[in-house]
Amino acid sequence: MDTKWKKGKVIFSFLAFVIGLTILVINLVPAVSMAAAFGMDIFHSGTPDYQESEEFRYLISEKLSDLLGVATGGQAYSPYQNEDAGGTAYSGSLNQPTTVAQEDAVVEESADYENAAFEDFMNNLEGPEAFGGNWDDYQAYLEEQQMHYDEMIAEYGIGSAYDDGYYYGYNDYYYGYGYGDEESRDAYMADMAKNKNLRYAVVCQNKLLYSNIEGFEEKAGEEWKGEDFSQALDGTAYNFTLWYNRENDGKVQIVKDGHEENVYGDGVYREESRWRVPGYANFTIGESTKDTVIFLAAAKYPQLYLVREDGSSSTMQYGGRLCQMRQNTLNLYSAAERIAIFMSTALLLLVIAFLMRKSRQQVTARIAEFLGKICLEGKLFVLLVMLVLLTGMSAGAMGQLVWWLRNGLSWYSWNGDYLYEIAKLTRTGGYLALWFWLFYLVVLDFRGNRHRQKKPLFDLLKVKDFKYPIQKRLVRRQRITLIAQIILLTLFAVAICLLWLFTEEYMNYLTGGYSYSYTYDFYEEMAEDLGYPLALAGGHMVWILMPCVIFAALSGFTMMTFLGLKKNRRLAVDIGALTDQILAVREGNMTERLQLSEDTDLQEAADNLNEIQKGMETALAERVKSERMKVDLVTNVSHDIKTPLTSIISYVELLRQEEELPQYVKEYIQILGEKSERLRGIVQDVFEVSKATSGQLPINMETLDMGKLLRQTLADMDGQIAESTLIMKDSVPQEPVLVQADGQRLYRVFQNLLQNALRYSLPGSRIYLTLVDEAGEAVVRIKNTSSVELSGDKDFTERFVRGDESRTDGGSGLGLSIAKSFTEACGGRFSVETDADLFTVTVRFDRGGKPVTEVPFEMRQPRYNAETGAAMDEARAIMKGQIKAKHYSDAHTLFEELDAEQKHD
Amino acid sequence: MNESVLVVDDDREIVRAIALLLEKEGYRTFKAYDGMEALQVLAEQEVQLIIMDVMMPKLDGLSAMMKIRERKNLPIIVLSAKTEDTDKILGLSMGADDYVAKPFNPQELAARVKSQLRRYTCLGGIHAQNEEEEIVNGRLCYRIKERTLYVDGEPVRLTATETKIMELLMKNRGRIFPAEEIYERVWEEPSFSPENTVMVHIRHIREKIELNPKEPEYIKVVWGIGYKMEKRESNI
Q1: Residues A732 and A784 placed together within one structural domain of the fold
Q2: Which pLDDT belongs to residue A847?
């Protein structure tokens, strides 16, 4: 129950956050835009009031100028609206109506790309002059053109043919054909009279010229006695009234809902002034309007007036503009209300989300965790696709946003289709929201998984883990190609997108040259955006297909390179394993076989290597076996020699103790003693050297000072050196020369070498003993001059090889052999050189190890090696009774018997 | 005198020779030619020391030794033709008091017999007492107040320097001393290449305390590092 509530709370907080933020972002653009465009004007009276709109003011000033033109005997189309048309403000002069109409039409129809056709159509229309005053011909011509026009509209699907705005322009043209001003004026005023939403009265020189106010319609041409036209109207139905020059002051007086409006402000006309009417200090009017009085009144709730005229194919529509204005205002108002509700809901949700941010963070953590499980390449790919898609979809909307930001916060509101505008802006907001959430996910992923992204593809490009240069080269070679191809592919994809997206239309969009069609609703617009690339390419399908084919081909190549790289990588791994294995075999690992992945390219090499290894293992095992047998033989032989030797030595000793023997017998005994002692030494040496050469000599490696060892050896052999005729010249540095070795064995090495030197040197000559450091090696050299001639081709380290072949000198002939095998068993290198009679022995050890003084003395105790350890274990086992020694039980029985006998006695 | 020694070896000539040598030194001897015989002799006779070969028929030396050790605490010297460290360790750890490798020096064997018997008969029950008064290490005993070294219970004449070296080493049994340190602590002056000086004194000491000075058991050279007094079980 509790956990369920907790789970619900977590989900709710996150949903509140997502929905709130989405709604906020979507509505933010239209909200800001609307606020900027209208301010709070539309809500000013609490209810939607179309008369507060800019368009309404525009229309009123337009009408005023029309009526001023009419009153002063000019043409009835507001000339000052179109400076380009050559009209001067309130000049009252006649302008070329065709020109005006054409300009107007061009401006109004420029929304669509078909506008060029309309433009051409309008530009090619013949003026009345071409018909030489033949009215009937001209009318027939116009009717024909009208048909063409309708066809065009049908063809291009513009459903706005009878829109007030367009029709108006066409109608302008229609009634602008007359030669005389009067005719033109009458036609215009006749149309205007039918629009009961707008009541008017035109007075010139105290004569009422035109009016559509009940009671004054019939009085046209009569004298105006200063009646208040508004009295004839229902004040609540027509809540807006405008007087021009009522007080003969050339100014405009506006009363709305009984309140007079401040029209002129500080009396200077500016761009942003609300009313564009004459009467400002810098907005003057011609003299001829001095006697003109104009009255205008607008209905509070305008209605549509339709007239089906006889002799015409169409139904005319009047007063639509005000109706539409009101409808737009109502729409705007409700849209604003809706947005306000959305925004407040969003804010409420966000406040809730903020209050429950602890719970929400659980969800974001889970999302980040989930994103962390996806490999980086996949995410980047999805992101790229999303970016391309979103860019494509939202380029138009974003372009509008850019335009909107660049051109100030106003709308194309002249046609007042606010719903369309809001829809567009809402769509922009939707794209913004999509962009926002995409960005949000990216940030979430970056923050949560920055240091633990899974990236198998990028890992494939890495070479850091490889040990051998060949592996790195193998991967690097293909890596460059793959990276280049991926970059090329990406660039190409981006280029295609750019090609499709940033076509001329889109550029127009971005630069603000884009204008809107009225009828496309939200969805159609979206479809249109997505369809642009195809539509633009039109018949040139090749422009679509070719990039696609190239892209597919490039993708194929890239995939091939990728697979190749993957294979090469596996090859590199195998090569690494192979190299490792070769190294292992070299190092002497004969047991582990190389196992490569199945169907590897290196199978043969691996098999062969395994065969070699197997062969070597067998050979090695045989060698070890034979060595072992040799050692066993030597051990047994030496044991078999030792037993009789013990007797010999013992009896020699007994003989020596006999005092009554003749002197010569005592000499014999002396010789027997010496020779038996020598025999003992030889047996011992043979035993040791055979163990050392077969690698069975126990070695206790420790850090020791070579210099000290040499000095100790010299001190130990002090007596022997002093007894000899030779002179010892030693050069051993005082500072420690540390090496890793077995001290006991190394002592035997130098003992043997020095004994050799003492034994075989030329009497009276010098023995040189040096210890030097050569390139990180501790090098000991013993040089002596041989007493007998040395032959250079002898290997003195072979067993039983001596400089003197006679073998009568008391040595075993194993000295150098022991020295060599012991040196090598300790990890050193041993060499012998002869130069004439100069005999040089060199012993080399790698320098290294901790200084002796820093090693606690406990650690310098000789450690039991594996062999002695095993012996100890065996001894313990026997003592604990776990293993029975040979004949143990027999002895036990004997003891029992003895005990019994003793008791018996 | 007249201590009895049991000599056990399957080689009759060796038994005879050893027996002869020991009789010349004034010991009574018994002979046995395998482990069983040795046990039989032990059951019948009063014996103070056993010299026993390892490799024998019927009952080998080590098994016999274990059997003997079940009841008797007399010194046993093991003889073996095997000279490897492992054999020595095995023998000593199974209850041997000493280990002599074949072929041995008869005089050394006699010395060892004498040493073992002295300690068995004279000092048998004596264990290490106060560390402050005397330091016991195997056959050696150094009495600090007397500044005298006893070997097998007999005082040994040492020079003043030798005494100082022994005191240092006996007090720090098992610790390795570089020659420099020995020199500086004994002579109490800075050393320069003291290896020879120290070695000469150590050689002299060895001649006085070791049974076989060529194969010292107490003062050992730790090659390339220094010198140390081997730590011995004091009751053996």
Answers
A1: yes
A2: 84
